[in-house]
Amino acid sequence: MARLTGKRKGRPFNIKFQTASLTQLFVTVMLSAGFFLSGVLLLWFATLDIPTVEGFHNRQVAESTKIYDRTGDVLLYDVHGSVRRTLVPLNEVSRHAKNAVVAIEDAEFYEHRGIKPTAFVRAMLANIREGGFSQGGSTITQQVVKLTLLTPEKTVTRKVKEGILAVKLEREMTKDQILEIYLNEAPYGGTIYGIEEASRVFFGKHSSDLTLAEGAYLAALPQAPTYYSPYGNHRERLADRKNLVLSKMLENGFISSEEYDDARAEEVGFADIGNGGIKAPHFVFYVLEYLENKYGREAVFEGGLTVITSLDHELQEEAERIVRERAIRNEVRFNAENASLVAIDPKTGQILTMVGSRGYFDENIDGKFNTALGKRQPGSAFKPFVYATAFAQGYTPETVLFNLRTQFSTACDAFDSENGADPCYSPRNYDNEYTGPTTIRNALAQSVNVPAVKTLYLVGIDNAIKTAKIMGISTLTDATRYGLTLVLGGGEVTLLDMVSSYGVFAEDGVRNPHTPILRVESRSGEVLEEYRGSPRQVITSEVARQINSILSDNVARTPLYGANSPLYFGEGVDVAAKTGTTNDNKDAWIIGYTPSIAVGAWAGNNTPEPMNEISGLIITPLWRDFMDVAFAQGKIQPEIFTEPEPTPENISPALRGIWNVPGRGVHSILHWVDKSNPRGAAPSNPLSDPQYVRWERPVQEWVAGTQTATTTPLPFPPLGLGAIPIQETRAASAEFSILSPPNGQTLAPGSLLTITINASAEAEIKSVSYFVDETLIGSSTQFPFSISYFLPGNGGHVIKAVASGSGGIFSDEVIVTVE
């Protein structure tokens, strides 16, 4: 009790503060609230429909999930079609396997009484806060309840039921009995249930004979059997989780450090599971992983779903046959043991076929790995994304680029165009031919490398990646990893993404994301998911039509493929196609499409071993075989692509296919076009671009070495190294001289020499020709009559200018030194 002292009207007073009464009031209120909340909770618990533990032995076996083709008539896979389970008593299970399960699932299993209160409350609060069911915290006992007594719904109510039943179960059964049930009920993927069956299927032995490493692998599987399947695409993640199990066993004293080290190092082999009645297995496992990610493992393996996929079973069977037959031939001829194929309807994004290898159950090639989803370098098959970016920025199919050997690396001598060793970069063409000016149409149709690298520089690496991403390429996540090699396939992609992305071209610039699903129904017939198109225009129709026009242009591609190649389907049928090979001989690609189908194929090896050569004969015939079948089955109708608009006349000549403008000389595109605005004004100072000198030098060398009627007309014929026959006549008052370079100037090796002249009005200059050491290097017929040239070698050089005009013929010369 506290006391306050004071005065009131001149008299002292005393007040006693009844703090004890306040405390009692607070406690009373809190107890009342507690009783009220307890009453509410008790009422809620009383209304819960909780199964009895006595019903445990009368539980129903979960219904199977069935996966069908697009017709709904062909069953591709029955997830629980014939449940494979062999019951086994706990004492017949390897102690390593039992300990592994306890260590990873519930390390305190033998200590708690069904639930771990702190984990249970934490999970409950998180689920209430998030309005869903994202947090676990389940003990082994709770998992047994979940596997045997409860429906697969994901709600807070179910979590409460699970906890109550777990406590009840612990009162009626021993820990070993509960663990035995868990080991016999746990899912291990597909139709495999229980540790004994899993042990027999995966390792060909009884669960009593499992090694420590094998037991750790099996303990790793039930969390996500499809994702961690030893026969799927995530075997590295399975190994990581196996190692986590071993770490938990070591941490909890189940094994010694020596046993831990031995188990991590143990080489474990998985047996072949056989075909199990499965059709289109690569596709089915792709669908299963999708379903698990979206609906959860329990819904897939216990929910009795009906899944109608997008797969065309007729085409799939033919695709599997073609891939198998062609891959076996390629193995003998090209050392290319494997192949894959994907077909998509570009109008919907629906996957029609997916063949991930020449044989899912072919042990010789690790056939279970789905190469349609594996990351590989696409070679020149990536080029259309770069050229599409160029067209979007204002370049045209007629744009002229010089196909000449070029040193692109600013870390290397611009004169050393032959050096491709790191850090230099001077890519070669497949045929080692460098033919001078070429249009983008011909460069793409004939898959010429040097113009492709120049195009990537013009559009920018980031912009090219952005185009690829919006079209559907999902694997180019770090732009800093790629340089100019990106256009030649320096980034890794998947066959599925490539086919889906090419479908954007086929669909006039509209992207329909790839999907394997048409409809998913619950066991009660409720439609959980149904295909709804989500088309989106990601590139303009004009850009798509320009690419289609080039990739289906049989005349433009004839120099590379021939007039009657497997890419040509005859008059009245447009089929666009692009091949790609890697320079290490490890990957061969082809992606082709019509307006109604996009088909891609890959050939190579699952191992790092290269093929013994790279040729269109490796993969193109496989693709053509499939296309012929698709046409024969009526899956493809003869169609024609919409033509692009004509190239405008009011743009730079370099964008219209004109590389030799009379009076203006011959130059690289960087001389005529501002790469950031190709439809705008020409650059005021082309030399400011760091690539200008590197592109210009080989052009001027080419001009100097090919003075024919195709280059700029010159007032004097080529004279080689002979004397220059000039009869100079001039008006007395006319003046003419070389203004730059000044006489006696010394230049560094590799310098770009720009020659300019000074002339009086009386000279009335019409044209000026320039000579270096008596060799004609070019001429100009337009003011200011200048020309640029790379001076060769060291030593002195005589620069001579000869002009003709109404005032007569004029000449002047200077001497410069290179050192």
Give the helix/strand layout.
Layout: E1 2-8, E2 11-17, H1 19-47, E3 66-68, E4 75-78, E5 84-85, H2 95-105, H3 117-130, H4 140-148, H5 156-172, H6 175-185, E6 192-193, H7 195-203, H8 212-220, H9 235-251, H10 257-265, H11 281-295, H12 297-302, E7 306-309, H13 313-334, E8 338-345, E9 350-355, H14 383-393, E10 400-403, E11 436-439, H15 440-445, H16 449-459, H17 461-471, H18 495-506, E12 510-511, E13 517-521, E14 527-530, E15 536-537, H19 541-551, H20 554-561, E16 576-581, E17 587-594, E18 597-604, H21 616-632, H22 669-672, H23 692-705, E19 729-730, E20 736-740, E21 746-747, E22 752-759, E23 765-772, E24 775-780, E25 787-790, E26 795-805, E27 808-818
Parallel strand pairs: 3-7, 5-6, 21-27
Antiparallel strand pairs: 1-2, 3-4, 7-13, 8-9, 8-18, 10-11, 12-15, 13-14, 16-17, 17-18, 19-27, 20-22, 22-25, 23-24, 23-26, 26-27
Helix pairs in contact: 2-8, 2-9, 3-5, 4-5, 4-6, 8-9, 9-10, 13-21, 14-16, 14-17, 14-19
